[in-house]
Design brief:
heterodimer, A: two-stranded antiparallel ribbon, 11 helices, B: alpha+beta, six-stranded mixed sheet, four-stranded antiparallel sheet, 12 strands, disordered C terminus
Chain lengths: 307, 259
Amino acid sequence: MSAWIYLPVAGNSVNLLMLLGLGGLVGFLSGLFGVGGGFLMTPLLIMMGIEPTIAAASDANQIVAASASGTYAHYRAGSVDFKMGVLLLVGGLAGGSVGVLLIRVLRGLGQADLFISATYVVMLGGIGSYMLVDSLKELRGKAREYVTQPRPSVWARLASTLPWRTDFPRSRVNHSVLMPLLLGVLVGVLSAIMGVGGGFIMVPVMVYLLRMPMHVVVGTSLFQILFTCANVTVLQAAVNHTVDFVLALVLLIGSVLGAQLGTRVNRRLRAEHLKILMAIIVLVVMAKMLMEFLIAPDILVSYAGGH
Amino acid sequence: MDAANKLVLPLVCLCWLMPAALVRAESPLRLGSQMVPLGMFFHGSTVHAHGTVPAGYQLAVVCTGPKGELKLKRKERVLGLVWLTRGEVTFARVPSLYIVDASAELEQLAPQPTLDRLGVGYSSLKADATNEPPRDQRASELFAELLRLKEREKLFGVDQHGVRLQEPKAGLVNWSTDIQLPPKLLPGDYVVRLYGFRAGNGELLDSRLLNVRQVGAVAAISAFARKWGLLYGIGAVLIALVAGLLTGMAFGRGAKGGH
C-alpha cells in the first residue's frame, strides 16, 4: 500500500503516516487539556501544502471525532458539567455572530488584521502568563494563599450581584445563569475575531472566572467544542465545499486514539501541573505568532483563508 | 481472378496502413499517456513526451493547466515593525500548472518578445496575470512572489535542459522529455505544446490535450461534496461523531473511570 494518499477536495497528495501522527499528537493535547487543537493542526496542515480554507474546515471535522471521544471518556469519569456547557455554548454561538459582524466592520475600516493580530498576542500572552504564574504560586504554597486572601475578589463580588443564581453540582459552584452566558458571549466574540475554536480561551475562563475544577473544565470544554466544530463542518461543507472528508478521516483515526491517551494522562496529572503545561503551550503559540509578525516572510503572498 | 485478389488485397491494406505508420513515426509530439488518473494513491506522475522534428530545431515543451483568476493574501510591513496581511491581490489569469522543458536556455532559443508571443517562459505569463481585467496594480509588483509560491508547490517550473535531442538522421531528429506532474494536481484539461526554434524564430510545431481526471473513490467523494454539500457535511459530522464515540466506548471498557 502506498504511504501517500490523494485528497479529493484538497486536490493534493499527502503522507498517510504523517497525517496519522499529526492527528494523534493533536488528539492527545485535546484529551489532555480540553482544547480543540485547531491552533496547532491548521498551520501544520498548511505547511503540508493543504490550502488554508480546506485545512481549517477539515480540521473542524476531525475535531468532532476527537472531542466526542474525549467527551465520552470524561463523561464516564463524571467530569462533564452539561448544564454549564450548554449555557456557555449558547453564549458562545451568540458571541460568534457578534464577532463576525465586528470583523466585517473592522475590515471595512481596513484595520481588521492589525486588530486580530493584536488580540492574538495580548490574549495569548495575558492568559498564558497569568496561568503560569498562578499555577506556580499554587504549587509553592497553596495553604498560605488561602489564608492571606480571605476577602473575595472584585470579580467575585461583581459576580455575586447578578440575579438568577443556580447550583452547578458537577462543578461544585453556585453562579448566576447570566455568568456562563455572558462569558460564553465573550469567548465567542474572541473566537470569531481570532478564527479559532476558542478552547484555549474557554479553559482559562472556566478555571479562573467560573472557578470550576480543572478536570471538569476539560470535559466540559470538549463537550462544547464538539458542537461548535460540528456546526462549522456542516456550514463549510454546505456553503464553501471546503471539507475534505478523506483528510478528516485519516486525522480522526489518529486523533481519537490520541484523545483517549490524553484523557488518561489528564486523570493522572495534578490540576496545577495541567495548568502549567497548558500555560506553556499557550505561551509557545504566542511566541510563534509574535515571531511571524516580526520576521519578514519568505514569500509576500499566500493563499487566503485558515486561522 | 482469385490470384489477382490475393495480390491486390494485401497491397490495398499496406497502402492504407502505411501513411498512418509514417505519420506516427514522424509525429512532432506524442505523449506516453493522454490521460492522468487522480486515484486515491496518486502522488505525482511523469508523462513521457517524445517525437520527431526536422534537424536544426531547438525545442521547448510547455505543459499548461486551466487558467483562472487567483486571489492571494498579501503581507506588508506596518509601522516599520510588524508584518501583517494587508488585504488581497488579484491575478487575472493564472494557469493552475505551468511546466517548461527546453533543450537549451530560454534566452538562447529566441528573443524575449518571441518567447512572450508564444507563451514560453514566466515572462509570458505576466501579461495575462496582470494586464487582463480585473486589473490590480499590486499584481504587477507581486508577480515575482506569485512565481515563488507556485515554484515552491512545484506547480510552476522551468527545466532549461529537460528536452533530450538525439543525433540527426536523414534530416530528422528524435527528441524526448519527461514532464513531471506534482502531487498537488487539480483535475482539468491540460495542454502540452511543442515549440520549435531556429535562427531566432519560433513556431508552434504541435500540441496535445492531456486529460487529468479524478477516478474511482476520489471522483465519487469529490462529486458528492460538490453536488450535495449539506448532506456531505452532515454525513461527515455523523461519521466523525460515531467514530469518536465508538473509540471512547472501546477504550472506556478498559478504563477505571473517575479520578
